[in-house]
Amino acid sequence: MSTETQEYTNGMRPGPLTREIPECMRDKYTVVQTVFDVLAFLMVAIGYIIQAIYRTIVGYPKKDLKGSIALVTGGGGGLGSLIALRLARLGCVVVLWDINKQG
Ligand SMILES: NC(=O)c1ccc[n+]([C@@H]2O[C@H](COP(=O)([O-])OP(=O)(O)OC[C@H]3O[C@@H](n4cnc5c(N)ncnc54)[C@H](O)[C@@H]3O)[C@@H](O)[C@H]2O)c1
């Protein structure tokens, strides 16, 4: 008959034997640790939600492109030409690249 005693890490509910949990993980399996983890997760999640709401309302700070050089591939037509025109209006030096010479 086995007379194995079951010792549990302080604060841990009966579950796996302490020796079955890797040495480095034992102190992390406490109720207090779990509560802290959940609270930390909630704080970070709420922080990101507040940041997303703020950015939706206020918007992102816009980068000043005046004087920047922009290379647009396929700038002879379609989306490329529209992007090139927009960049030129924002003050960029626009370099166009296209196989369609006419465009
Ligand atoms: N139009 C859309 O709704 C849409 C949506 C998602 C993605 N895209 C992608 O965006 C890109 C542009 O779309 P578009 O509708 O403006 O296409 P488009 O065909 O109107 O324009 C493409 C331009 O690229 C040029 N081009 C093609 N091969 C080239 C090469 N090897 N080197 C340089 N220039 C070249 C063409 O001459 C043309 O002027 C495509 O890759 C397309 O798949 C388009």
From TrEMBL:
GO terms for molecular function: oxidoreductase activity, acting on the CH-OH group of donors, NAD or NADP as acceptor. Coiled coil: none annotated. The keyword Membrane applies. GO terms for cellular component: lipid droplet. The chain crosses the membrane at residues 38-57, 69-97. Signal peptide: none annotated. This is Jg14045 protein. It comes from Pararge aegeria aegeria. The lineage of its organism: Eukaryota, Metazoa, Ecdysozoa, Arthropoda, Hexapoda.
